[in-house]
Amino acid sequence: MKLTVRLLKLLTIFPMVIGTIGFVALAGQPFLDSVFNCLIMYVMNYSDTPPNVLVEIARWTAPLATAGGIVILFSSLHEQMRNLWRYFCGGSVAVYGPENDKDIILRQLGKHGINGQDKFVKAEKYILLGNEPDNFKFYCDNKDKLAGKKVYVRCSSLPVQSLSSPDLKLFCPEEIAARLFWRKYDVYSLWKNSDGILKIVMIGFGKLGEELLLSGLQSNLFACGQKIEYHIFGDCSAFIATHTSLYKISDPVIPHDRPWYEDIELMENADMVIVLQQQEQSGLIQKLLSTTLRKLVYVFSGEGPELELLDHRERLELFPWQAEASKLKLLLEDTLYLRAKRINLRYAHIYNGTEEDPENMEKEWNSLDTFTRYSNISAADYHEIRLKILEAEGIGDDPKKFSVETMERLAELEHIRWCRYHYLNNWSYGKPENGKSKDPKRRIHTLLCDYSELSEEEKEKDRENIRILLSIK
User: Fold this and answer.
1) What domains are defined for the chain?
2) What is the pLDDT of residues 414-452, one digit of tens each?
3) Helices (H) and strands (E) in the chain — how many of each?
4) Which of 157, 204, 330, 444 has the fewest CB atoms within 10 Å, i.e. is most exposed?
């Protein structure tokens, strides 16, 4: 579409340029007379005999340029009127970024979608899919116009919870894909059938590996004292160095300096092998399939069809992570965020008497600092795993029917998850000087300890957390 418009614009000025050259350079006419003669060609009023071939070409192409200009004008007016109509009809979402990425979102939006192209347009919500400098420049340049609007910005370099503005939401495709992966594939069954230690191998790391590991350490929690090993074949040195409390998590992260093909025994015996490497992926997978007898390899597959053509394709479980992470419902207030907000509102209702209605839900959510906000998201994310565990064990989700042992196990797992969230954000155990339970500036908390070390009052709070979480449908 952009190429067509550019060609039409080029066609519009072509007769003027070539005609002027013909009149001035070849026919020796004055410049202003030449420009005037070229202008009248656009309305087909030039009737003199052309002095040379350039003027002849200009005379024939000028009417076409006029028609092209009219097409551009009407096309622009039509698009502006359509965008205004969609805005006034409600539910409009303006999308900015590369054409291919925009098309995926606009197709899902249907009549609510507005192609932002290169200019600001009115809409109720905005999705920015460009590179990060362009996204943030657009936001800063139009900050006043965007006031009070929901703006969703694709960003992989900053943590999603790093911005404080409640109207500006970062979304990271790699993070979304990681969360979806652990939900989709049944790690719990693999863990139950393991011999006590579950081994998960990741080939490749980068941003995908970082998000998959962060999500896995918080989601793959099935029993107290479990051992799930995450073996990393890829450069994860920066991740380990910047997560200073990682060693406090019982599931070990094991980096490997040598390439994966020098540890074929681990490739054969691991419970899960996940290919995250995106470059030269098909060649890597073909080598993996030909050198091992693994029945199943999980692949974060790219956009191309190459993997579908591989020999032994039946041994691959392809996870098209980019397509999965681009689903509109995951960008615009997905069920995870909604559940997190409802959890927070329920706490506000129980402890402060806040009425549970949509207005208070947004108000209470926006009042949270980003760390606490994302803590609720972590709790909401793990809750889906908790429900799967209860279903698999045939227990049901009614806490009134839980045995003492079941409630105690769930409460301890929730405490472990809470601790892990803090550890992955570089918190540690400590006693603040002010006598309070936590000091956010020093990142210390008195409750970052084993469940068995908690007071009965604190344990009851974890049990109550379980009751609250199970009451949120």
Assistant:
1) 2-76 (1.10.287), 90-154 (3.40.50), 177-325 (3.40.50.720), 333-471 (no CATH)
2) 999 999 999 999 999 999 987 789 999 999 999 999 999
3) 18, 14
4) 157
